[in-house]
Amino acid sequence: MATATMARKTVRINGCVAAAQAAKYADVDVITAYPIRPYTATMMALAQMVANGELDAEYIVADSEHSQLSIAHGASSSGARVFTGSSGVGVQFGYELYSPISGSRMPVQMMIADRTLDPPGDFGSEHTDALSTRDMGWLMGWSCDAQEAFDNHLLAYRIGEDARVLLPQMVCQDGFFVSHITTDVALPDSGQVKEFLPPYKHPYPLDPRHPVSHGPQIMPEQGPPLQLERARAMEGATTVIEEAHDDFARIFGRRYDPWIEEFMTDGAEVVFFMQGGHAVTARHAIRHLRERGAKVGLVRLRTIRPYPTDRVMDSLSRFKAVGVVETNMGLGSVSSGGSLYAEACAALYESDTRPLVLSFMAGMGGEAIVLKEFYWMTNKLLEAQKRGKIEKRTHWVGFEE
Q1: What angle (nearest 5°) sits at the alpha carbon of residue 179, between those of residues 174 and 180?
Q2: How many CA atoms lie within 13 A of 168 on its CB side?
Q3: What is the spatial distance between Cα 82 and Cα 30, in angstroms, rounded to a whole number?
Q4: Does the structure show a pLDDT above 50 at 3?
Q5: Contact 125, 367 (CB under 8 A)
Q6: Which residues contact 359 (CB under 8 A, 6 or more apart)?
Q7: DSSP 3-state helix, strand, coil percentages of the chain (rounded to 5)?
Q8: pTM for this entry
Q9: pLDDT tens figures, 261-299
Q10: Domains of the chain with CATH codes
Q11: Whole-number Å distance between alpha carbons of 320 and 331
């Protein structure tokens, strides 16, 4: 249990510390850690909290990311609220555990501060690390700033631990652009958190007094029912996600759309479709472009698993052209670029009105997407709208005229 009552206050912190604060407010029982930048700053902050007596939790430093996820799996199976995390190649090294954790319905929470895979392994953000796990049965979404990172961790615990869901969660934020840039974050009082987030209580914990059997290795004929159950849990999470966001707004006074954020879309004819911290820059670019008469807006994806297919279709089908800003690698994919394009197009397939869709490879290797690049992408969208067809599916921003 947490050792002190926490009062409401506003602090200036970065995304990594915001995630650590959320774990403290959630009163986690077990923390498993293995260092890799940029997520390491979260585990440093949590280690300090435990050392100072601010948080009563078991802090375990593993010998690898694989061990880190294995310990988290076991702790959650025993009834503990668990917090862990990683970045980049560390996310990959724990890959074997993602399906067993979701398959055994253990709501482990994992904070991911994105970084590029090798090569180039850069510190800055690229979403390929987390997106490579997107079909392993974990709830997943991106935060665009430190406040949202704090809030999304509390929301994810509430959703994943709900008896109707019982799925693990990846709460993602952009390396450097969110993880290491400080902004004002409103921290609640502990009473608000207790009202919003009930204690974790798994229905079938490992307990010698009440023996149960856990394990991913089962007979082949048992597999289809288990997979169907996991699929239904992901689909059924939709209702729980919306309920949790309604309760969050009522208790904390901040309302998020659980699925997508629309920015300056009224009157827009072309929009950017993206997720994560680069949306902050996109908002500034859109304000400037609107002042110049360009009818451009932003649709930001907040949750990617479960994917809000109908919401994406209803939103994007209103515009003439959509630019999917990827910040991830989908080499050899349908667009030969990123992976978000295919899902945007699939969501639009059943719509009676379909916009032109372009894929923009931007922010690759962890680079910033600067204002002039958003201006360049806007011009490409407006040109496609004027022609009534796209020039090509994928543009590599910064490498074309």
Answers
A1: 130
A2: 33
A3: 5
A4: no
A5: no
A6: 323, 324, 326, 335, 337, 338, 340, 341, 393, 394, 395
A7: 40, 20, 40
A8: 0.95
A9: 999 999 999 999 999 999 999 999 999 999 999 999 999
A10: 9-252 (3.40.50.970), 260-396 (3.40.50.920)
A11: 27
